[in-house]
Design goal:
By secondary structure, the protein is an alpha/beta fold. The chain has a domain of 184 residues: Rossmann fold. The chain is 33% helix and 16% strand. The strands form 4 sheets. The chain has a 3-stranded parallel sheet, with helices on one face. Helix 2 links the parallel strand 2 and strand 3. Helix 1 packs across helix 8. It is elongated. The structure holds glutamic acid and zinc ion. Keywords: Aminoacyl-tRNA synthetase, ATP-binding, Ligase, Metal-binding, Nucleotide-binding, Protein biosynthesis, Zinc. InterPro entries: Glu-Q_tRNA(Asp)_Synthase (IPR022380), Glu/Gln-tRNA-synth (IPR000924), Glu/Gln-tRNA-synth_Ib_cat-dom (IPR020058), GluQ/Sye (IPR049940), Rossmann-like_a/b/a_fold (IPR014729). This is Glutamyl-Q tRNA(Asp) synthetase. Its cofactor is Zn(2+).
Length: 295
């Protein structure tokens, strides 16, 4: 079914080069958009310059191009969007919905990442402080297209969370929701490591009066040694000369029935095959290590 109103996106963080796990996420979001004639946008989530790997932005975009991906419109950089983020923070701060937190890491270390609310009513100034958003004592739930139902109680399992860091950088949770809303994204396809960020994002969407997008969280790819391929683990960058075999592996990790004849195709042709045959119902909840292995 064609749905030209579909707007998808890929939103890499330039803290490292593209690895196999991010290729799987990029591929799934690309095919899901193109299979219905939708748009596919590219957004660089460069919110954290100290953790940015020099040259990573260019390398990510070059790799995607070599692998045959084409995005619609101009690349958006989150580093160009600080004003929009700060405006919302100011508004929420003036309503008392957001507040300044001066807690040290040490003060919070016994709470397993759930903020105990120490600064909720302290009335600290926002200078040199983190900014947190108050969360309601409510459970947020959504139906993921692959992972099924996911629920999380924001008060109990998360607590008031950071929307601006003490060092002045904006938090991913805030920026991603504002940008997806601003860019009109209807469908979010990304790695399952972000499943448990989604309820926080649903809450921010609600505050902003944004429509809730559809979600599809692709399985995480684990290495044979059990390591997750991801930001925290130095996985090798994708080789430029292996585009066709790696795209085929990524298709297999997504449960798509690739045949060996595709080995002789160009990366563009592999993507074309993927668009024509895309079936999101075949995506496994957990990727088989064998299928995903890169050697
Ligand atoms: N920038 C995030 C990452 O690279 C992805 C954000 C998202 O897709 O919502 O993990
Ligand atoms: Zn605090």
């Amino acid at each position: 079914m064609k749905s030209p109103s579909y707007i998808g996106r890929f939103a890499p963080t330039p803290s490292g080069y593209l690895h196999f796990g991010s290729l799987v996420a990029a591929l799934a979001s690309y095919l899901d958009a193109r299979a219905v004639g939708g748009k596919w946008l590219m957004r660089m989530e460069d919110l954290d310059p100290p953790r940015e790997e020099p040259g990573a932005q260019t390398a990510i975009l070059n790799t995607l191009e070599t692998y045959g991906f084409e995005w619609d419109g101009e690349l958006v950089r989150q580093s160009d969007r600080h004003e929009a983020y700060q405006d919302i923070i100011n508004r929420w701060f003036s309503y008392g919905l957001a507040y300044a937190c001066t807690c040290s890491r040490k003060q919070l270390e016994d709470f397993q990442g759930i903020y105990p609310g120490f600064c909720r009513n302290a009335g600290h100034s926002p200078d040199n402080a983190a900014i947190r958003i108050r969360v309601p004592e409510l459970e947020y739930r959504f139906e993921d297209r692959v992972q099924g139902e996911f629920r999380q109680h924001l008060g109990r399992d998360v607590g008031d969370f950071v929307i601006k860091r003490r060092d002045g950088f904006y938090a991913y949770q805030l920026a991603v929701v504002l940008d997806d809303g601003w860019q009109g994204v209807t469908d979010i396809v990304r790695g399952a490591d972000l499943l448990d960020s989604t309820p926080r994002q649903l809450y921010l969407q609600e505050l902003l009066g944004l429509p809730q997008p559809r979600y599809l969280h692709v399985p995480l790819i684990t290495q044979p040694d059990g390591h997750k391929l991801g930001k925290s683990y130095r996985s090798p960058p994708l080789p430029v000369d292996q585009a066709t075999p790696l795209l085929m592996r990524a298709l297999r990790a997504l449960g798509q029935p690739v045949t060996d004849e595709l080995s002789f195709a160009t990366p563009r042709e592999v993507l074309g095959w993927g668009i024509a045959h895309w079936n999101a119902d075949l995506i496994p909840r957990v990727a088989s290590i064998e299928e995903a292995r890169i050697d």
